[in-house]
């Protein structure tokens, strides 16, 4: 891709949530304040999450996926070093694989208010996801693009599933995080919104009802960002490797780019019902890469690889124009060969039936390539 072409593709950024764990047991370690302070002293903007066992990183804004991947890898390595300095390990995993002693809530006024309002939902959180931001011209088109992204959320969830082991046992799901996360009243697949006014009215209703305390608690898996001029896609588990996070970002940018082009041509997004999308979500969370998924647009149950292939064909022009096509092809081939986080976890626990093997595999994956 020529330098002049970079200005014509949407920029992208990524937020990754990580679990801090005890180096000996692998259990969640409530050390986010100390690790974040060390990271900030090292020039890293590390964010505190709802529980004291979690931290969040944020990349800069990128046009090239290769540059994004380089930053993801460098940041994982540097934050892992900060964690190690405070007797903790950084783990890219969506739920704790070991038995936790609990999830103490981070001591900030907002998080304490959430905990007091939502009770055990907050105290049993400990869930780590990955959020991808893609630049859009305005909030009107952010809502319109959300409608175009909705049908493809399940295939992205299946691709990045990384929570097959929880509390020392197989969950029976590739993404147990997805199942737990949707207990929140504002989480999961968003409705199909007719307009920005429709979106804003729904958010106002949720605020009035008490199901959210502020606009940051709009946890839908696609939403206009409250902080940046972007559409934010939040469906994914935290991927096991930085390369998988970069792959997710490239695929999402492709979907958003094609959505923007459809909007410019006046083409409506597929109107997938909430019931169909919820069924497709459950299917994706249950089987991940290794099973069949419900095709949310034309119905029918197809192998994950077939649904992913359909998505790739649809967004191929955008991948090519963004310069991401070669990276995506290579990254998907590598993912199929090595497996995503869920497949890695299941391989590890089925070898000796020891959760310590799962933790060791995830520790390796977290810094793979870093």
Please write out the topology:
Blueprint: E1 12-21, H1 32-41, E2 47-48, E3 54-58, H2 65-84, E4 89-91, H3 109-118, H4 120-123, E5 129-135, H5 139-149, H6 153-160, E6 165-166, E7 169-170, H7 176-181, H8 196-209, E8 222-224, E9 230-237, H9 242-264, H10 274-287, E10 292-294, E11 301-303, H11 304-322, H12 325-338, H13 341-352, H14 355-366
Antiparallel strand pairs: 1-3, 1-4, 1-5, 2-3, 5-9, 6-7, 8-9, 10-11
Function: ATP-dependent carboxylate-amine ligase which exhibits weak glutamate--cysteine ligase activity.
Family: Belongs to the glutamate--cysteine ligase type 2 family. YbdK subfamily.
Pfam families: GCS2
What does this protein structure show overall?
Its EC number is 6.3.2.2. This is Putative glutamate--cysteine ligase 2. ATP-dependent carboxylate-amine ligase which exhibits weak glutamate--cysteine ligase activity. Keywords: ATP-binding, Ligase, Nucleotide-binding. The structure is a single chain. 48% of the residues lie in helices and 13% in strands. The protein has 14 helices and eleven strands. The radius of gyration is 19 Å and the shape is globular.
Structural category is alpha+beta
Q: Main sheet, how many strands, which sense, barrel?
A: 7 strands, antiparallel
User: What's the overall geometry?
Assistant: globular
Rg from alpha-carbon coordinates: 19 Å
Q: In angstroms, what separates the terminal alpha carbons?
A: 25 Å
CATH class category name: Alpha Beta
Structural domain count: 1
Amount of helix: 40-55%
In DSSP terms, counting alpha (H) and pi (I) runs of 4 or more, how many helices? 14
Unreliable stretches (pLDDT < 50, length at least 5) are: 1-7
| Proportion of residues in extended strands | 5-15%
The H-and-E topology, N to C, reads as EHEEHEHHEHHEEHHEEHHEEHHHH
| Second CATH tier, the architecture | 2-Layer Sandwich
């Amino acid at each position: 891709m020529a330098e002049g072409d970079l200005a014509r593709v949407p920029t992208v950024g990524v937020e990754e949530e990580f679990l801090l764990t005890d180096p000996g047991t692998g259990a969640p370690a409530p050390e986010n304040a100390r690790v974040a302070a060390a990271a900030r002293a090292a020039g890293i903007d590390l964010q505190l999450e709802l529980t004291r066992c979690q931290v969040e990183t944020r990349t800069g804004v990128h046009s090239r996926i290769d540059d994004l991947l380089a930053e993801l890898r460098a940041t994982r390595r540097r934050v892992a070093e900060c964690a190690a300095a405070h007797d903790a390990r950084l783990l890219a995993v969506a739920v704790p694989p070991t038995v936790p002693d609990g999830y103490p809530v981070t001591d900030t006024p907002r998080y304490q208010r959430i905990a007091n309002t939502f009770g055990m939902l907050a105290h049993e959180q400990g869930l780590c996801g990955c959020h991808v931001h893609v630049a859009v011209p305005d909030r009107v088109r952010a809502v319109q693009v959300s409608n175009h992204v909705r049908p493809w959320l399940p295939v992205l969830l299946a691709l990045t599933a990384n929570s097959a082991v929880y509390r020392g046992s197989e969950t029976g799901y590739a993404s147990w995080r997805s199942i737990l996360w949707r207990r929140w009243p504002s989480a999961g697949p968003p409705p199909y919104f007719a307009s920005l006014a429709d979106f804003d009215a729904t958010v106002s209703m949720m605020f009035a009802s008490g199901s959210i305390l502020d606009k940051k608690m709009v946890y839908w898996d696609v939403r206009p960002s409250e902080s940046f001029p972007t559409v934010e896609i939040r469906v994914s588990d935290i991927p096991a490797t930085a390369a998988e996070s970069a792959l997710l970002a490239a695929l999402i940018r492709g979907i958003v780019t094609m959505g923007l082009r459809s909007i410019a041509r006046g083409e409506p997004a597929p109107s997938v019902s909430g019931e169909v999308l919820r069924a497709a979500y459950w299917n994706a969370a249950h089987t991940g890469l290794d099973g069949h998924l419900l095709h949310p647009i034309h119905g029918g149950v197809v192998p994950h690889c077939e649904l992913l292939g359909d998505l790739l064909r649809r967004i191929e022009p955008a991948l090519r124009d963004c310069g991401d096509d070669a990276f995506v092809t290579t990254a998907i081939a590598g993912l199929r060969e090595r497996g995503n986080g869920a497949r890695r976890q299941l391989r590890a626990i089925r070898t000796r039936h020891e959760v310590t093997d799962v933790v060791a595999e995830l520790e390796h994956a977290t810094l793979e390539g870093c």
